[in-house]
């Protein structure tokens, strides 16, 4: 299982074969239904007219006090960061979360990626720290891959790490020996490499302002450029769900578009969800989409029908959610000053 949470620089020079195929998709905003006041609902009931059901409120199970900016979950453990510190939190008893271990690293943590008892901490100009968490009470720094630019995100395919560098392109790194990562190749895009995601060997690089650059990294030493999907709005990040779908988060808009990636050369828009929040990242698991809503907390959305996403729950957190994560049963929120464990 794997679980996946910015900067300035000069634009990179375009040196790869990206752009051999190019396609476009119109992004449409879906207006949200107007809320119905209690008075109107009562009048509608008296008149015998049906009223729209409101999403149920989610249930808070527990709160773990302490700084919490980002979170990733793998199995029974949550990996929580604040500034340059990583905490390992045991969630096996969701009503009683407990810190099992911690580790401080060089540089602020901008993103956490967990796979196979290994945590990758993305730390901007300080590169990517690779941490062994096989012993939760004693996380151990194995190595640091010093990136050429400012690392903002990471994704893993097999034993290959793919790291967007903002200024210097996507680095392809062999992490088969975690204590000795090796740079294999670099792929540049014309803009700023802001985020990344992968579905098997298919890799999406978020390039601002040019959209999504697609690569096949079946051969990590020679990635194949598949094309570019441009958009009128800036793409902020992406998340992958089930059924060959990718969720594209547009910057400063609250808009999430759902794409079918069955044919990566001809991506197809399945629908979109217009949230009232403004966020940088979302979490997806199964047919559920979780969006942080700023001071309004978090919102859970049913995306089983991508053409008509439906809100199914919300929780107004005390702080401002940064990182969010989903398990089969739990919602985990890094709320600034505490980690919140929520149940549907």
How is this structure best summarized?
The protein is 3% helix and 49% strand.
Q: What is the total tally of β strands? A: 30
Largest β-sheet summary: 5 strands, antiparallel
Indicate the CATH topology. Methylamine Dehydrogenase, Chain H
Q: Give the class from helix and strand content and strand pairing.
A: mainly beta
CATH superfamily: YVTN repeat-like/Quinoprotein amine dehydrogenase
How does CATH name the architecture?
A: 7 Propeller
Shape: globular
Helical coverage, percent range: under 10%
Mean pLDDT: 86
Report the CATH C-level class.
Mainly Beta
Task: Report strand order across the widest sheet.
Answer: 1-8-9-10-11
User: What's the structural domain tally?
Assistant: 1
User: For the CA atoms, what is the radius of gyration?
Assistant: 20 Å
Report the portion of residues in β strands.
over 45%
Extract low-pLDDT stretches: 1-52
Number of distinct helices: 1
Terminal Cα span:
22 Å
Description:
- With 344 residues, the protein is mostly beta strands.
- The protein has one domain: Methylamine Dehydrogenase, Chain H (7 Propeller).
- It is built from 1 helix and 30 strands.
- It has one helix at 38-47, and strands at 2-3, 22-24, 59-68, 70-74, 77-82, 85-90, 98-104, 111-115, 118-122, 128-132, 140-145, 155-157, 160-164, 170-174, 182-187, 192-199, 202-208, 211-216, 224-230, 235-240, 245-250, 255-260, 268-274, 283-285, 288-292, 298-302, 310-315, 324-326, 330-334, 336-343.
- It has a 5-stranded antiparallel sheet with strand order 1-8-9-10-11, with no helix packed on it. Strands 2-19-18-17-16 form a 5-stranded mixed sheet, with no helix packed on it. Strands 3-30-29-28 form a 4-stranded antiparallel sheet, with no helix packed on it.
- Strand 20 and strand 21 form a beta hairpin.
- It is globular, with a radius of gyration of 20 Å.
């Amino acid at each position: 299982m794997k679980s996946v949470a910015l900067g300035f620089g000069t634009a990179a020079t375009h040196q790869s074969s990206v752009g051999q195929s190019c396609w476009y998709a119109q992004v449409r905003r879906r207006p949200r239904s107007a809320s119905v006041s209690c008075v109107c609902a009562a009048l509608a009931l008296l008149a015998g007219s049906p009223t729209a059901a409101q999403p149920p409120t989610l249930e808070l199970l527990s709160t773990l006090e302490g700084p919490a900016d980002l979170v990733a979950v793998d199995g029974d453990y949550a990996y929580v960061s604040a500034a340059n510190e990583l905490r390992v939190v045991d969630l096996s008893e969701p009503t009683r979360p407990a810190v099992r271990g911690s580790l401080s690293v060089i540089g602020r943590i901008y993103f956490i990626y967990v796979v196979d008892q290994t945590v990758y901490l993305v730390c901007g100009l300080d590169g990517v720290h690779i941490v062994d968490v096989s012993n939760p009470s004693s996380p151990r720094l194995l190595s640091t891959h010093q990136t050429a630019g400012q690392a903002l995100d990471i994704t893993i395919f097999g034993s290959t790490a793919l790291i967007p560098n903002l200024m210097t392109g996507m680095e392809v790194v062999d992490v088969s020996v975690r204590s000795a990562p090796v740079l294999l190749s670099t792929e540049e895009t014309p803009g700023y490499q802001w985020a990344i995601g992968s579905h098997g060997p298919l890799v999406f690089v978020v390039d601002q302002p040019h959209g999504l650059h697609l690569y096949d990294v079946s051969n990590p030493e020679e990635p194949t450029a598949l094309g570019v999907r441009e958009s009128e709005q800036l793409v902020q990040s992406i998340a992958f769900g089930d059924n060959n779908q990718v969720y594209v988060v547009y910057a400063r808009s609250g808009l999430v578009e759902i794409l079918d990636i069955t044919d990566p050369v001809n991506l197809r828009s399945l629908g979109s969800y217009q949230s009232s929040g403004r966020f940088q990242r979302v979490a997806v698991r199964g047919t559920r989409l979780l969006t942080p809503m700023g001071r309004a907390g978090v919102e859970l959305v049913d995306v089983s029908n991508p053409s008509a996403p439906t809100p199914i729950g919300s929780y107004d957190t005390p702080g401002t959610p940064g990182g969010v994560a989903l398990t089969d049963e739990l919602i985990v929120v890094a709320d600034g000053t505490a980690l919140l464990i929520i149940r549907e």
